[in-house]
Amino acid sequence: MAIRFLLLPLALLVLAAASSAAVAQLEIGFYSKTCPNAEKIVGEEMAKIIAAAPSLAGPLLRLHFHDCFVRGCDASVMLESTEGNVAEKDAKPNKSLRGFGSVERVKAKLEAACPGIVSCADVLTLMSRDAVVLAKGPFWPVALGRRDGRVSSATEASNELPPASGDVPLLVKIFASKGLNLKDLVVLSGAHTLGTAHCPSFADRLYNTTSENGTSGFVDPSLDSEYADKLRLKCKSVDDRTMLSEMDPGSFKTFDTSYYRHVAKRRGLFRSDAALVFNATTKNYVQRIATGKFDVEFFRDFSESMIKMGDVGVLTGAEGEIRKKCHVLN
Ligand code: HEM
Ligand SMILES: *[C@@H]1O[C@H](CO)[C@@H](O)[C@H](O)[C@H]1NC(C)=O
Ligand SMILES: *[C@@H]1O[C@H](CO)[C@@H](O)[C@H](O)[C@H]1NC(C)=O
Ligand SMILES: *[C@@H]1O[C@H](CO)[C@@H](O)[C@H](O)[C@H]1NC(C)=O
Ligand SMILES: CC(=O)N[C@H]1CO[C@H](CO)[C@@H](O)[C@@H]1O
């Protein structure tokens, strides 16, 4: 990690400074006076967490995405439901979220070092970056200073998170509502190089696709048929909840470009992945990165899009609070 800091490309630094300026108070080194070891503490804990459970890299990256898409990156995803309020994490799209315990563990270390200083929203952002680095993906500088929100709503999570069944126009609409564009969509979908999915996220493609005349019960024609056969061996029915499939089979713990090779071969797991080849612009990107000759370009693009995503709807200054524990309000 230390070495990667030294080798940090200047271009990225400049870019991060520019994008954080746009949303005011987020800054690189925000805790340099108040908690100088914050990033180091997160990095060291993450190294231990991923060493013990490499498959947590995906879930920790996804937590930050879900956080940012609902009410902005404000750690609302971490809050537990209370009497009279069903929280985001209990919304349907969140059923499969994991990694909450690891976030709480890292936060506890930070509280021990500098109580009440580092927000859960920043912890999530740093952990997602470190998860990618530890999975052999790119490093990018994280501007800090996010504050934690006081509201978490299951209904919002269900409305604002992109559904796995989404096509490009729908996904573009949802991304645009967060200030993210078509390129961010195709680039950030590359996060599906990490992790696993449950059958209900995609098994309708195997058993119950609706044909043009409205009858259901078909196999999705946009899914490679050999691959569909393989997936059916795993997912015995549309609502089989027990089985997991790797989204980037063969390298689901490594952050690389093989996701795009799968998508290009009609082996993207979700409809939202498959949809990327039905729009000429996103298809072009998928095919370019799938060649394996532009890994550096994808890593740079991913870093840029993650920085943008980490800026979505942040609370700064005196807004919100710095939670002591990420799952409950102070
Ligand atoms: C483009 C729209 C997106 C859709 C429709 C989508 C949908 C999904 C779904 C349905 C799952 C599987 C849940 C399960 O069955 O367990 C999943 C997993 C995952 N998603 Fe996405 N996602 C999208 C974008 C993103 C973005 C932007 C990121 C991060 C930058 C991301 C990171 C992940 C990761 C890492 C996993 C694996 C989690 C694990 O291993 O438990 N996704 N996504
Ligand atoms: C199959 O799809 C149809 C139409 O979308 C839906 O009404 C039905 O409930 C689905 N069946 C299963 C088993 O999911
Ligand atoms: C509907 O379309 C499917 C395949 O596209 C076909 O097998 C089926 O016979 C059609 N049903 C009707 C009622 O036209
Ligand atoms: C791809 O999707 C974008 C956003 O919906 C749209 O503006 C563009 O026209 C689409 N391109 C093609 C070739 O369909
Ligand atoms: C991890 C987590 O909080 N999962 C919850 C998601 O939502 C369902 C209800 O929709 C809960 O049963 C899970 O515990």
Question: Descriptors for this entry?
Answer:
330 residues, mainly alpha, Peroxidase, domain 1, Peroxidase, domain 2, two-stranded antiparallel sheet, 2% strand, globular, disordered N terminus, binds protoporphyrin IX containing FE, binds 2-acetamido-2-deoxy-beta-D-glucopyranose
Write the layout of secondary structure elements.
Blueprint: H1 2-6, H2 10-22, H3 38-52, H4 57-69, H5 100-113, H6 120-134, H7 154-160, H8 168-176, H9 182-188, E1 196-198, H10 204-207, H11 225-234, E2 244-246, H12 258-264, H13 271-274, H14 280-290, H15 295-309
Antiparallel strand pairs: 1-2
Helix pairs in contact: 2-15, 3-5, 3-6, 4-6, 9-14, 9-15, 12-14
Bound molecules: protoporphyrin IX containing FE and 2-acetamido-2-deoxy-beta-D-glucopyranose (NAG) (4 copies).
The site of one 2-acetamido-2-deoxy-beta-D-glucopyranose has 3 residues, from loops.
Task: Please sum up the structure shown.
The protein is mostly helical and 330 residues long.
Note down, in words, how this protein is organized.
Residues 1-11 have low confidence and may be disordered. 45% of the residues lie in helices and 2% in strands. The two termini are 33 Å apart. The chain has 330 residues and is mainly alpha-helical. It has two domains: 12-161, Peroxidase, domain 1; 168-308, Peroxidase, domain 2. α4 (57-69) packs across α6. The chain has 15 helices and two strands. The longest helix has 15 residues, at 38-52. It has a two-stranded antiparallel ribbon. Bound molecules: protoporphyrin IX containing FE and 2-acetamido-2-deoxy-beta-D-glucopyranose (NAG) (4 copies). It comes from Triticum aestivum. Keywords: Calcium, Disulfide bond, Glycoprotein, Heme, Hydrogen peroxide, Iron, Metal-binding, Oxidoreductase, Peroxidase, Pyrrolidone carboxylic acid, Secreted, Signal.
